Amino acid sequence: MRWVADDGGRADAGFKGVTGDCVTRAIAIASGQSYKRVYDDLHEAVLSCRPHMAKLELRYGQHARRHASPRTGVHRRFYEPYLFGLGFLWTPTMSIGSGTTVHLREDELPGGRLVVAVSKHLTAVIDGAIHDTFDPSRDGERCVYGYYRLVD
Q: Rounded to the nearest 10 degrees, what angle do helices 76-85 and 35-47 cross at?
């Protein structure tokens, strides 16, 4: 599968350094929205969830808001409703006990704009090409748990 180096507009938005922002980056790339808009929307979604913030406040005290940042990862319970709101639909490709049936390969994924879930990572795939800051395909052996596809 072809890989295109793409930070989703992160550098253009003024963000620097290396971070674990694959959720924000993949959504920005696949949806065509600006990185900053997706970042701000996800940050607001996380901060508005009081039970989540209460756990962070217990763990991090006065630094809890920093640990609720899309810069360091976003839990599925926050990004999935956001993707659904943008018009993405979820297609699971694995179930418990089913084994691997779909890999991060062009011939095993549909065309269009996808946010693909692999182990501990989300990546954008647009018309058979991976758009990410690195190639997560593991030479076509990376197992795909499922994908969100933008519906026209």
A: 130
What is the Cα–Cα distance from 138 to 71, expressed in whole angstroms?
A: 24
Q: What is the Cα–Cα distance from 104 to 122, expressed in whole angstroms?
A: 11
Encode 40-75: b = buried (16+ Cβ within 10 Å), e = exposed: ebbbebbbeeeebbeebbeeeeeebeeebbbbebbe
85-102 confidence digits (pLDDT tens) = 999 999 999 877 777 889
Provide the edge-to-edge strand list for the sheet that holds 121-126: 2-5, 129-132, 121-126, 113-118, 144-150, 88-92
CA angle 102, 122, 145 (to 5 degrees): 30
State pLDDT tens for residues 92-141: 998 777 778 899 999 999 999 999 999 999 999 999 999 999 999 999 99
